[in-house]
Write a structure and sequence with these properties.
The structure holds three protein chains of three kinds.
Chain A: H1 20-51, H2 57-61, H3 77-108, H4 114-126, H5 131-143, H6 152-176, H7 180-188, H8 193-222, H9 225-228, H10 250-258, H11 263-294
Helix pairs in contact in A: 1-11, 3-6, 3-8, 3-10, 5-6, 6-8, 7-8, 8-11, 10-11
Chain B: H1 23-60, H2 63-68, E1 72-73, E2 80-81, H3 84-115, H4 118-133, H5 136-154, H6 165-189, H7 193-201, H8 206-217, H9 219-235, H10 238-244, H11 261-270, H12 278-312
Helix pairs in contact in B: 1-12, 3-6, 3-9, 4-6, 5-6, 5-10, 6-9, 6-10, 7-8, 9-12, 10-11, 11-12
Chain C: E1 24-35, E2 38-49, E3 53-57, H1 64-71, E4 81-89, E5 92-93, H2 101-107, E6 108-111, H3 122-132, H4 140-149, H5 153-156, H6 169-181, E7 187-191, H7 199-212, E8 217-221, H8 225-231, E9 234-242, E10 248-257, H9 258-263, H10 268-274
Parallel strand pairs in C: 3-8, 3-9, 6-7, 7-8
Antiparallel strand pairs in C: 1-2, 1-4, 4-5, 9-10
Classes of the chains: A mainly alpha, B mainly alpha, C alpha/beta.
Chain lengths: 298, 313, 279
């Protein structure tokens, strides 16, 4: 008996200090996030210092040039305008389509039906298809198949299809976060399903949809690969003036500038990167702010 | 309180049948379904755009040559069509990327899901989101003009080429960290708290609980995240086009310049190739291969996510 | 009589109401409700009297909420749910082929367990029902009338534009009642309307129900036996029974005037439940 019982003096509930292993593990985990953050900071500092000498108004007022003699004054105006055109059209096409598709999947689709599961799986899959493959779709079907050529509208349709899955996924999350009790309350008053969606569910999910849309469009703004196949690869020296106009986009002009062999031209590319990142950081901040502001309202 | 209400008489007289037709509801439902079907049309469109030129390509170039040779040069004369160099380059860059992204992404996910206090989370989540939002052409620039010269200074014995698979792969790895981290974190967050509490109640530490309980319980979600990240890495274009280069030599040495499948498509597609030519069709043949590889991986990943959602929802 | 339930005051002789003649609004016969293959409720026969308060009580899982949700066909919204047997509403089959569930819900209002005001202004919460039913323009009078009937007007008349989520839980629930009244239903279904409220707010809702029962037929599901005894004219007692295949089904045990259920139940199971020996 006496042997089996533990002497009271040896029992200690007080912490002996957490073992070293625990601390190291925690620090290693934290370090991984620190690496990501340090990387971002170094990246930002690097592009700003590289592009600093050309962060001037010429950059956004002038057309591009690959000639070293023009490097002091050349800009990326046509790229900025091309991006504006293409992304605005993408927003017009992809955002409504994406929200409607999300409404279908969240509010109407019977999940036990195979075709609805197929649509769902297909969207998750499309979100991960390499963007260069969308370029092939744009080149083979939209540009040459439909005969729309290497034009603004070809670029916009291609980009819309590319961001559509992202918009749908984000909009679904937003719609899902509206509590079912709101739908029940509305239906119990004799509202139809669409009245319930239009007057209750969609207004309540606007902040979430807006956040997701901004993030999807910022993905669109930074996208370069598909445009390489759509004739946007050259340094276009004019602004688009219509849907059938040829065009370039900012990321593609950056690609052309930074892969140029002349250091002076590369500097213009670095400065253009700063412009691109500034736009994207702004959009990201708005999205994050929106989300924090409207989080958890129920 | 004594109201004259209700004004309408009890419903005896009125039927419960539809008081007015509601065609609008049916039209709207059809419209919504049509929007959802755009995604199916996209997949069909991608496959359609790939199939015909790919078949035509293989009528001109034998499958034996495509998969049986290690000489790749469809854009030069004499043209050669052995696809292995760009496949190997793709695999190699993907492997480097995964070696970077899996430990870092998983560690980030464990920290955010198991350790971070809400304030810390609120700070680090946006860091990952901003990282995910950086255009890949920017990563390419960083790899080409910052990382490669830096690696050359630190490891002169590597004899890095100006464009090389190593720098490109490292940056692709950084690019996919947010994918690994956020999807893994989602699946860890879905692990019921009861499992953790059970482990703590047995006296397990936080580290043991994270590694032995949470990670295994979230395993299918983590695997899905990694597969998705692999697929992203394999299809990444701009980083490899800028920092990895376009040379297609059959080699396993990552210090060399080498073109991946995506880089080849970008390079060939950017040149204005005439529609019927064999080089033009090569774009689609390589595109088909890339699409099939990534499609299979994405499908697996999406199915695994669907499964773990079903388990814990 | 009172020996069985010394703590429960039954609304009986003190507040006499003529409930002898049952003027039926709903006539339920042999109702069974299925979720997929599972029969959640089996063989219910019940009559809901016009402008009476009918309480449905019983242990959790006895199917009382399920039956309530059949009365305005809210169960239709659950995939795989279906009802067998019949519910006649003023002699019209509620589940008949020609019946439009949306029309049903316009006629038969519902108040839920947890207050669920819309994230809109108080005014818009009330105006929502009439609007979706086709009413246009300003509806100040209607809003005032509904809020007055729900005994909320004095508390909110100066802040009609305020978000309804800023109200207290009890106020929110009365708002939900006002919202239901605003579409001028004949029946109000209440699914444990006080279970999320404190005792003071509960008392207010109970008083309100008494007022409303002059104009409306009310069916209330409650966990709280005292509440059923205090407010209702008739009570239906449900319980869960296990059948030969050891599957649980909700069953109606006894349906009678409330005073009789609580003082002189005819079924042993009812007596056990209300005296606290079971449940």
């Amino acid at each position: 008996m006496a042997i089996l019982s533990t002497p009271a003096s040896t029992v200690r509930l007080a912490s002996q200090g957490r073992p070293l292993k625990e601390h190291l593990f925690r620090i290693a985990l934290l370090a991984s996030l620190a690496i990501a953050m340090i990387f971002l900071v170094v990246l930002l500092v690097y592009v700003v210092t590289q592009g600093w000498s050309r962060l001037d108004l010429n950059l956004i007022q002038n057309f591009p040039s690959l000639r070293a003699v023009n490097a002091a004054t050349a800009g990326v105006l046509s790229g900025i305008m091309g991006t504006l055109w293409v992304v605005a059209l993408t927003a017009l096409m992809a955002l409504p389509t994406g929200v409607l598709a999300a409404v279908y999947l969240e509010e109407y689709a019977d999940k036990t039906k195979w075709y609805n599961r197929l649509i769902e799986l297909n969207i998750a899959n499309l979100a991960a298809v390499p963007s260069i493959v969308y370029g092939i779709l744009g080149l083979g079907v939209i540009s040459r198949g439909f005969g729309l050529g290497p034009s603004v509208i070809t670029g916009a349709i291609t980009l819309s299809l590319l961001v559509l899955p992202i918009v749908i996924i984000a909009a679904r999350e937003a719609i899902k976060s509206v509590p079912p009790s709101i739908r029940e309350g509305s239906l119990a008053l004799g509202a139809t399903q669409w009245q319930t969606i239009w007057r209750q569910v969609l207004p309540a999910s606007v902040p979430g949809i807006a956040t997701g849309s901004i993030l999807a469009l910022s993905r669109a703004i930074g996208e370069a690969a598909p445009f390489l196949l759509l004739g946007a690869a050259t340094l276009v020296r004019f602004n688009p003036d219509g849907l059938d106009s040829s065009f370039s986009v900012l990321p593609v002009q950056i690609y052309n500038l930074i892969t140029n062999s002349r250091p002076e031209v590369q500097v213009v590319g670095a400065a253009a990167i700063v412009v691109l990142l500034a736009i994207l950081l702004l959009m990201n901040s708005v999205a994050i702010w929106l989300r924090n502001r409207y989080q958890k309202r129920w | 309180m004594a109201a004259q209400h209700p004004a309408t008489a009890p419903g005896t007289g009125r039927s419960l049948a539809r008081s007015r037709p509601r065609y609008g509801e049916a039209i709207i439902k059809a419209l919504l379904l049509a929007a959802a079907l755009v995604s199916i049309a996209t997949t069909v469109g991608i496959i359609y755009s790939l199939v015909e030129p790919t078949i035509e390509f293989f009528q001109a170039v034998s499958i034996g040559q495509f998969f049986g040779s290690t000489n790749w040069g469809p854009l030069i004369k004499p043209a050669t069509f052995g696809v292995w160099p760009i496949v190997v380059a793709t695999l190699e860059i993907t492997l480097i990327a995964i070696i970077v992204a899996v430990p870092l992404g998983l560690a980030a996910a464990i920290y955010l899901s198991e350790y971070a206090k809400p304030g810390v989370r609120k700070f680090f989540k946006p860091v990952l989101e901003i990282l995910a939002g950086v255009p890949t052409v920017v990563f390419g620039y960083f790899a080409l003009s910052f990382l490669t010269p830096l690696l050359k200074d630190i490891f002169p014995f590597l004899n890095l080429e100006a464009k090389n698979a190593l720098s490109a792969g490292l940056l692709v790895g950084i690019m996919i960290i947010p994918i690994v981290a956020s999807l893994s974190e989602d699946s860890m967050a879905a692990v019921p708290n009861g499992l953790r509490e059970g482990s703590f109640a047995l006296g397990a530490s936080k580290m043991l609980t994270s590694i032995r309980v949470v990670v295994p319980a979230a395993f299918s979600g983590i695997v899905a995240a990694i597969i998705l990240a692999v697929s992203r890495a394999a299809g990444e274009t701009m980083i490899v086009a800028v920092a990895g280069g376009f040379k297609s030599i059959f080699t396993f040495d990552p210090t060399n310049e080498m073109a991946t499948m995506a880089a080849f498509i970008a390079q060939a597609g950017a040149g204005d190739l005439s529609t019927g030519s064999i080089p033009y069709k090569t774009i689609f043949a390589v595109g088909s291969l890339l699409f099939i590889i990534t499609f299979v991986m994405n499908w697996f990943s999406a199915r695994m996510v669907q499964k773990y959602r079903e388990v814990y929802d | 009589m009172t020996e069985i339930m010394p703590n429960i005051t039954v609304r009986g002789p003190e507040a006499p109401r003529n409930i002898e003649a049952l003027d039926p609004v709903f006539t339920v016969s042999n109702l069974s409700v299925f979720y997929g293959d599972y029969e959640a409720v089996r063989g219910v026969d019940l009559t809901i009297g016009n402008r009476e308060i009918t309480a449905m009580i019983g242990p959790s899982g006895c199917g009382k909420s399920t039956v309530l949700r059949c009365f305005n066909r809210m169960n239709d919204l659950i995939p795989g749910a279906r009802a067998a047997g019949s519910i006649m509403y003023h002699g019209e089959d509620l589940y008949g082929d020609h019946v439009d569930p949306i029309e049903v819900r316009r006629r038969i209002g519902m108040v839920f367990q947890k207050p669920n005001p819309f994230p809109k202004s108080i005014y818009d919460n009330i105006a929502y029902g009439p609007r979706v039913n086709g009413m246009k323009g300003k509806m100040d009078d209607l809003v005032e009338q509904a809020l007055t009937q729900a005994a909320l007007w004095d508390e909110v008349k100066d802040k009609l534009k305020q978000n309804a989520l800023s109200l207290s839980g009890g106020q929110q629930q009365r708002l939900c009642i006002a919202r239901a009244i605003a579409v001028r239903p004949e029946v109000i279904l209440m699914d444990e309307p006080c279970s999320a409220l404190d005792p003071i707010a509960t008392t207010k809702i109970e008083d309100l129900m008494q007022e409303l029962s002059r104009d409306y037929t009310i069916v209330i599901v409650t966990h709280n036996m005292q509440q059923a005894a205090r407010v209702s004219d008739r009570t239906a007692f449900f319980t869960a029974e296990v059948d030969e295949q050891s599957v649980r089904h909700g069953r109606l045990v006894e349906f009678d005037e409330t005073s009789r259920i609580f003082t002189n139940p005819s079924d042993k199971r009812t007596e056990d439940y209300i005296t606290g020996r079971f449940g």
